[in-house]
């Protein structure tokens, strides 16, 4: 198990490097986030001890359950799953970044809790760039007005945009949803919203990380290629499965 994870990590880093080289990008511009849903603390530890620093969880329950098994390690935890408003307070105990900010009510709830705690948090805005009903995220056309609305919450530091691309066996079918995230970022820059600069793109997973890097990704979120299949026996990309 240990050898497999270490071997897989090397492979994934190699894929990232190769993709960066192909698109003339520096590999330091692309961070690897370990998507650790359903992965045990023990396995996560192997990857961290091999040099990884960033993990992403989809569920509050898993964040909490793995906390004790990982607390001696120096890791940055992002929340990458659908976040229910009633879980905000708990998630804020563990995560330093919410990558799945997808609606005003969530922004308001985060702000309310953060004001109480007198602190701020990094956020990525999740956008549904594949137009699939099974996915959460703002519609591309709503993004600019959304940013203008949440900007008043000084507790939310807008760090970037996140999407789950369309997965398909055909490579070229996957590209448009990744390309669109980059285009949305350009539109945001064109709109010149004060203090909204340097937005990172979080996109690319086991299947599409090369394409995502070619389209400008700064964070690839990889699970399966490192930890193996999750065997959930259900459509993993149906984000609507209740927590
Ligand atoms: C599971 C997950 C990933 C990783 O997907 P893999 O195909 O296992 O690499 C990335 N992003 C999100 C939001 C996820 O839930």
UniProtKB/TrEMBL annotation:
GO molecular function: pyridoxal phosphate binding
UniProt KW keywords: Pyridoxal phosphate
Chain positions found as N6-(pyridoxal phosphate)lysine: 37
Boundaries of every Alanine racemase N-terminal domain copy: 42-229
Transmembrane segments: none
Necessary cofactors: pyridoxal 5'-phosphate
rRNA-binding listed as a keyword: no
HAMAP family reported in the protein's UniProt record: PLP_homeostasis
Family assignment from sequence similarity: Belongs to the pyridoxal phosphate-binding protein YggS/PROSC family.
Functional description taken from the UniProt entry: Pyridoxal 5'-phosphate (PLP)-binding protein, which is involved in PLP homeostasis.
PANTHER family: PROLINE SYNTHETASE CO-TRANSCRIBED BACTERIAL HOMOLOG PROTEIN, PYRIDOXAL PHOSPHATE HOMEOSTASIS PROTEIN
NCBIfam families tied to this protein: YggS family pyridoxal phosphate-dependent enzyme
Name assigned to this protein: Pyridoxal phosphate homeostasis protein
């Amino acid at each position: 198990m240990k050898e497999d994870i270490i071997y897989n990590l090397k492979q994934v880093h190699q894929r990232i490097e190769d993709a960066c080289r192909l698109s003339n990008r520096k590999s330091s511009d692309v961070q690897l986030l370990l998507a650790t849903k359903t992965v045990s603390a023990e396995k996560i530890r192997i990857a961290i001890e091999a040099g990884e620093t960033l993990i992403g969880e989809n569920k509050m329950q898993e964040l909490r359950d793995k906390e004790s098994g990982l607390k001696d390690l120096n890791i940055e935890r992002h929340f990458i799953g659908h976040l229910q408003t009633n879980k905000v307070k708990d998630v804020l105990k563990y995560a330093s970044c919410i990558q799945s900010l997808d609606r005003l009510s969530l922004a308001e709830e985060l702000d309310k809790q953060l004001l109480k705690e007198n602190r701020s948090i990094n956020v990525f805005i999740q956008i549904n760039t594949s137009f699939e009903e099974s996915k959460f995220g703002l519609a591309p056309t709503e993004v600019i007005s959304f940013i203008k609305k949440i900007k008043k919450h000084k507790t939310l530091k807008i760090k970037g945009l996140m999407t789950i691309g369309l997965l398909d066996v055909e490579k070229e079918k996957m590209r448009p949803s990744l390309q669109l995230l980059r285009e949305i970022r350009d539109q945001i820059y064109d709109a010149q919203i004060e203090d909204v600069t340097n937005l990172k793109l979080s996109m690319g997973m086991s299947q599409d990380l090369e394409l995502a890097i070619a389209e400008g990704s700064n964070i690839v979120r990889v699970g399966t290629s490192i930890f193996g299949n999750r065997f959930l026996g259900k459509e993993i990309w149906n984000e609507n499965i209740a927590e």
